[in-house]
Amino acid sequence: MAGTGILLYRFWTVENPSLLVCTLLFSLVLIFRFGRKGKSTADSPPPSPWRLPIIGNLHQLSAPLYKGLHALSLKHGPIIRLQLGSIPYCAVSSGDLATQVAKTHESLFSDRRITKGARILFSEGDGVLISPDNKCWRLARKLCVNELLSLRKVQSIHFIRKEEVARLVSMIRSSSDQKIDLSDSFLKLAGSIVSRSVLGRKISSDEDERDNVEGKLALQSAHAITDWFSFEDIIPSLSWLDHLTGLSRRLKNTSQAIHAFLDQVIDERETAGIQSGNEGDDTKCFVDIILELLKKEMISPDFTRGNFRAILLDMFVAGITTSAAAMEWAMTELARNPRIMKKVQEEVRGVVGSQSEIHESDLDRMEYLKCVIKETLRLHGLTLIARQASTTVTIGGFRLPAKVTALINIWAIHRDPAAWDKPLEFLPERFLNTCYNFKGQDQVYFPFGLGRRICPGVDFAMSEVEYALANILWLFDWELPDGMLAEDIDMRATTSVIKLKKAPLCLVPVPVASPACQCT
């Protein structure tokens, strides 16, 4: 969707110049005929840039979408009415208006407009990420929170994080003084942790066998849901063009591959039986627990195999890519800022002292590390969240019609100079001695969203990110490859809702003299 403006702009200007001229003339007639409204009131819609028939405001949006929306907001204000193709949208770029949409009126904005990619991938059941606010969504969210994402469950699977981070440390040690791809390493780490805690699959330590199927499927799913351009999402009557471009086939093939993989996992765990003999409940994976609840008829009979797959797919898309991106960008910013790197390493090493390993309780005393992560998520975290209005509602004194989709520009809010001092600089100190958290309770900081649809996996993600970063900052110094300067680091990001680096982060690890870590 982020590239929609560029793609259609090329279509109109290059391939159909005569059609463009006619369209522009017709648009000018409309503008002079109806003119612009006076100052808005509660009975009028938000201001809107001029638009063209058929494509609406698509020609005014550059890629990535969140930057294009931000540019328009600087001209027209923090709330803008847009027409992307034939679909009505409203762009929201201020914290107070975002709070009105997702919290004050959360019951009216609890649904999401589903993209073609999401509809095909989740064709046989509702999950948590993109499903409408209905009985199935509430059941799916309850299962995820109670059986995987609650603080108690997150703490109970610390042994998985410990073992997988130990494997990461071992791999880094074997590559000491050589450049390693941290982007790929973090994706594998996140994939392994989700694979074990959700699917009960322990990936082989043999590098030749470790092909990271989970991580690849997570990225492919995320791209299919949010990034692959579809004519149907913009102009439904042109859905047939998706067949010509090959998109429909790609989505179908991706869906079949993911469903087959998840079905295989469910069948394997079901055949093996619930591993409850000599093991406690805390050692069971999420799939085991759901199968056990189904066997005991403790889940609604409306819960289908499709719902099961949808929840697992949610865990992959959100659980792997979000954590991997946070670790990747944190180390990127530290590599660019040696002062901050030194400061956070001194804190971590001071807390650990002469211990032979990092305990989870130690993380509570690593305040500056937490600030580094918060600042990373401010600059490189979630970019957009979408909420669809179920009825007419007034936001910021403007009337929004039913079915309009509000695009909350988290990227812009996190860079608002009215809310943040030096908003474009990486300054973890800004979070010291503040009340900012990950729960979306502030009007300027929403790294995991806000309102009833806030990401429920905050504890799961942060426990992994904090523990992994603490270990590699404790045990290694990090240098840039020979001949590379901090300003040479490629900071370009993908256009996804969850931003990853376009170019992988490659650094050189240098082991430091410290007590041998028991986990290695």
Automatic annotation (TrEMBL):
Organism name: Kalanchoe fedtschenkoi (Lavender scallops)
PROSITE patterns, A to Z: CYTOCHROME_P450
Molecular function, one GO term: monooxygenase activity
Family stated for the protein in its record: Belongs to the cytochrome P450 family.
Methyltransferase keyword on record: no
CDD domains reported for this sequence: CYP71-like (cd11072)
Protein name listed in UniProt: Cytochrome P450
Gene3D superfamilies named in the record: Cytochrome P450
Keyword match Transmembrane helix: yes
